[in-house]
Amino acid sequence: MESVPPPSAQASSKPRKSAGSLVATIVIIAIAGLLLARMLVGSDTAQTPEFMPVTTDLASVAFEGDKPVVAVVTADWCSPCQELKRNALSDQRVQHLLASKAQPVMIDGTSTETAMPTLEKLGVRAFPSTVVLRDGRPVAKLEGNASADRYLAWLEAHL
């Protein structure tokens, strides 16, 4: 007759879940919750500054003179992009500097597939990105959101 181990011995032979899989599960649940919350609340897209034409194709915009082009790359689905529009790009000092020393343009990267040729030309790897172009070539790039003061200082250094 074969002996059967007690129930407590059988339970201990089961493999335990690692701490890594528990953390991954928590992260997945948190991301799903954030996505659900965003769907329920809405995207709250910030207004694009009136002085900036919007395009997905930089080549479609006619630039004049020898002022540098400042291309601000954003997307409707990008929260940091909306913050950049609400804060730095809404600041009167930033608007004055862009209007007087540059030719600003907003690149709409909402559909990355449509905007991909422009994003590649600008070397954009992150949203939002601000790229200064001289003679059609990128000469400076700021990736990510920035306060109005930091954005203004960066623009002053590169215009």
Q: How would you characterize the overall build of this protein?
A:
The chain is α/β, with parallel strands linked by helices and 159 residues long. It is built from six helices and five strands; from the N terminus they run H-H-E-E-H-H-E-H-E-E-H. The protein has helices at residues 7-12, 19-41, 79-86, 92-101, 112-122, 148-158, and strands at 54-55, 69-74, 103-108, 129-134, 137-143. The N and C termini lie far apart (89 Å).
Provide a compact summary of the structure.
This protein has 159 residues and is an alpha/beta fold.
The Cα radius of gyration reads 24 Å
What is the count of β-strands?
5
Helical fraction: 40-55%
CATH architecture classification of the largest domain: 3-Layer(aba) Sandwich
Q: How many separate domains make up the residues?
A: 2
CATH superfamily of the largest domain: Glutaredoxin
Task: Give the overall average pLDDT.
Answer: 85
Principal-axis shape: elongated
**What name does CATH use for the topology of the largest domain?**
Glutaredoxin
Sheet of most strands: 5 strands, mixed
In DSSP terms, counting alpha (H) and pi (I) runs of 4 or more, how many helices?
6
Which runs of at least 5 residues are low in confidence (pLDDT < 50)? none
Beta content comes to 15-25%
Order of helices and strands: HHEEHHEHEEH
Lateral strand order in the biggest sheet: 1-3-2-4-5
CATH level-1 class of the largest domain:
Alpha Beta
Distance between the termini: 89 Å
What is the structural class?
alpha/beta
